[in-house]
Amino acid sequence: MRAVVQRVDGARVEVAGETVGEIVGEGLCVLVGVTHEDTKEKAAQLARKLWSVRILQGEKSCSDTSAPLLVISQFTLYGDARKGRRPTWNAAAPGPVAEPLVDEVVAQLRALGAQVETGRFGASMKVSLTNDGPFTVMVEV
């Protein structure tokens, strides 16, 4: 699994003009990509990392401050544009594999005590955020 994690001061995701997930104030906006070999164990590992990574102000984590997370599925994180002019998506897991694993990341975060908002799997989403820093990191498990 792969995640692009941004420290934000507010973020939201819209589908067809409707806000489906939103966090206000300091938190993390997390784009999650799934590949073919990913498992529920990797989803749990990613959730623990997201909950405890110290990238908020003052080197704090979401677990330290109860900061919310906005988790959004993003198969394009496994796109490969090294050849030609069009990326290939061969490394991205198909929806029936990826969706339950993204849901598992969310469920594991909630089990840890996190406030989690989400996008809508497979939908055309508009993501708005204020990157705080800017601060963006990649997390892979």
Secondary structure layout plus pairing:
Layout: E1 2-15, E2 18-33, H1 40-52, H2 62-65, E3 69-73, H3 95-111, E4 116-118, E5 125-140
Parallel strand pairs: 2-3, 3-4
Antiparallel strand pairs: 1-2, 1-5
Helix pairs in contact: 1-3
Strand segment count: 5
Helix-and-strand structural type:
alpha/beta
- The best one-word shape is globular
The total of helices stands at 3
How many angstroms separate the termini? 6 Å
The biggest beta sheet, please? 5 strands, mixed
Sheet with the most strands: spatial strand order: 4-3-2-1-5
Low-confidence stretches: none
Radius of gyration: 15 Å
Helix content: 10-25%
Order of helices and strands: EEHHEHEE
Mean pLDDT: 97
Beta fraction of the residues? Answer: 35-45%
What does this structure look like?
With 141 residues, the protein is an alpha/beta fold. The chain has a 5-stranded mixed sheet. 24% of the residues lie in helices and 38% in strands. The chain is globular and about 40 Å long. A hairpin with a 2-residue loop joins strand 1 (2-15) and strand 2 (18-33). The protein has 3 helices and 5 strands; from the N terminus they run E-E-H-H-E-H-E-E.
